[in-house]
Amino acid sequence: MKRIASAVVRPTGPNYTQAIETGGFTLAADEPRGAGGQNAGPGPYNLLLAGLGACTAITLKMYADRKGWQIGALQVALTLAKDDDGATHIERRLSSNAPLDAAQWDKLVEIAGKTPVTRTLAAGAAITTTREVR
C-alpha cells in the first residue's frame, strides 16, 4: 500500500481542543462552546469540508493551467447536512470572477466530481482501528 498522508492528533487544552500534526504543519481542532468545546479551531466536519474544498480548488486550477484557461479567483463553497434519516449530503458550489463559457463550466463541474478527495468520500474508505502501546 502506498501512503498518501498521515496525521497525529493530541489533546492540547481543556475539554475537546486538539492539535493536529500533518504534512509538517500544526492545526487546531475543537468543538464550539455550545457543544462543550473552547471554539479554539474548526470542528471535525469543518476540517473534512476544508480538505474537500482545497482538493477541488487545487485540482481545478491544475486542470485549467494545463488547458491554458484563465479561471480567475475560483471559489469553492461547501455545506454538509444530514437528512432526517441520518444520511450525509455535501453541497459544493463553484464560482469565479472569470468570464468562463458554459462548456468550460461544464468541464470544471465534471472534473470536480473526479477529484481525489471527492472519489475517496464517494467510495468510502476502509478504516481500521488498533491499540498502540506507549
Percent helix: 25-40%
**What is the radius of gyration?**
18 Å
Helix-strand pattern = EEEHEEHH
CATH architecture descriptor name of the largest domain: 2-Layer Sandwich
User: What best-fitting shape do the alpha-carbon axes yield?
Assistant: globular
**Assembly state:** single chain
Overall domain count: 2
Number of strands: 5
Question: What structural class do you assign from the helix and strand content?
Answer: alpha+beta
By CATH reckoning, the class of the largest domain would read: Alpha Beta
> Uncertain regions: pLDDT < 50 for 5+ in a row?
none
For the termini, the CA-CA separation is 25 Å
Q: Could you name the CATH homologous superfamily of the largest domain?
A: K homology (KH) domain
Strand order of the largest sheet: 1-2-3
Global mean pLDDT: 95
Strand content: 15-25%
Largest sheet: 3 strands, antiparallel
Count of helical regions? 3
CATH topology heading of the largest domain: GMP Synthetase, Chain A, domain 3
